[in-house]
Design brief:
By secondary structure, the protein is α/β, with parallel strands linked by helices. The chain has eleven helices and eleven strands. It has two domains: 166 residues, TIM Barrel; 106 residues, no CATH class. 41% of the residues are buried.
């Protein structure tokens, strides 16, 4: 039902590895687009997901980054390391320059593997749907909102094949200091059935704009999603007090963390008391700065825990 989209950075892969059991228990289906040619961290994470039998999608033709991971490298990886993994669906991204014949050749080559088609800009839906009609191993269609309209999506409505809508709820700012205290994130967890799809997803609090690395952080921001009384989803942005230089990121993290903990401790705080939040509390008590990658990992973990809790309560 929930399909979070990961770009395969190191802290994201660690998150997947560390939470494999949680993902399995809550039937969360991660979509992973590798961005590094060094596959060592990816292999460890996929091994953990396989051991816990977590259904996931691994994109075989990544598009993110200035130099995306080559599809030939991905095929070698699948053939050598993931050939016997039954939990992996091979994901193929259909973008503006995609060629249907390339996809068809891959689906035929891996006829014993399930496929997830990620629609992110390809325009001829009818032609694609007709070309895929003969194959029984196409199991999911994932539509990136804004890159696949309703008429396009209609071509892929077929019994036994799930359709998923991915919405980018995170609105990145060029400067962390520009974030508002709170803003709307998404209502797709409530309305996805109204959209005519079987599941929903997002890019967590990373957003769909991928960059290889960020510049120096003049301000530190902690992003925490929460639900309002109607279960609509919003996001807090807790910003450090100091925003005028890139020095002392650890001290700035503690400034932002103090604001988060203050909100968390309020009697009627809407922040879900996730395990990730308890880890934030531990960092606050120990006055420890674990690095910005770890901070982002905790916020992503909290977001996944929040959605899992909502879905459990909604059942």
């Amino acid at each position: 039902m929930y399909y979070p989209f990961f770009r395969g950075k190191q802290f994201e892969l660690i998150l997947l590895r560390d939470n494999a059991g949680f993902l399995a228990k809550n039937t969360i289906h991660p979509i992973i687009e590798p961005v590094k040619n060094d596959f060592s961290a990816l292999k460890r994470s996929m091994k953990a997901l396989n051991e816990k039998n977590v259904d996931c999608t691994l994109v075989v033709n990544p598009q993110a980054g200035q130099k995306p991971v080559p599809i030939d490298s991905m095929r070698k990886l699948i053939d050598s390391d993931f050939n016997n993994y039954k939990n992996i669906s091979l994901g193929y991204m259909m973008h503006t320059k995609s060629n249907i014949n390339d996809l068809i050749a891959l689906v035929r080559q891996y006829k014993n593997s399930n496929f997830t088609i990620v629609h992110c800009g390809y325009s001829n839906g009818k032609q694609l749907a007709d070309a895929l009609g003969e194959f029984q191993n196409i199991k999911k269609h994932v539509f990136i909102e804004g890159s696949a309209g309703k008429l396009y999506q209609r071509h892929f409505k077929k019994n036994g094949i799930k359709r998923v809508l991915i919405r980018n709820g995170f609105k990145p700012q060029k400067k962390n200091s520009n974030y508002p205290p709170s803003e709307h994130f998404s209502d797709l967890h409530l309305t996805y059935s109204d959209e005519g799809v079987d599941g929903f997803g997002d890019y967590l609090m990373v957003g769909d704009d991928y960059s290889e690395s960020g510049g120096p952080a003049y301000a530190v921001a902690i992003h925490v999603t929460y639900l309002d009384p109607e279960n609509d989803m919003f996001i807090y942005h807790f910003i450090s007090d100091r925003t005028d230089s890139p020095t002392d990121p650890g001290g700035k993290f503690l400034e932002a963390l103090a604001k988060m903990i203050k909100e968390l401790k309020k009697p009627n705080s809407p922040i879900f008391k996730s395990k990730a939040c308890m880890e934030y509390m531990k960092l606050y008590n120990e006055k420890h700065y674990p690095g910005l990658g770890y901070v982002k990992k905790l916020s992503m973990q909290h977001h996944i825990e929040l959605i899992a809790h909502f879905l459990e309560q909604a059942d």
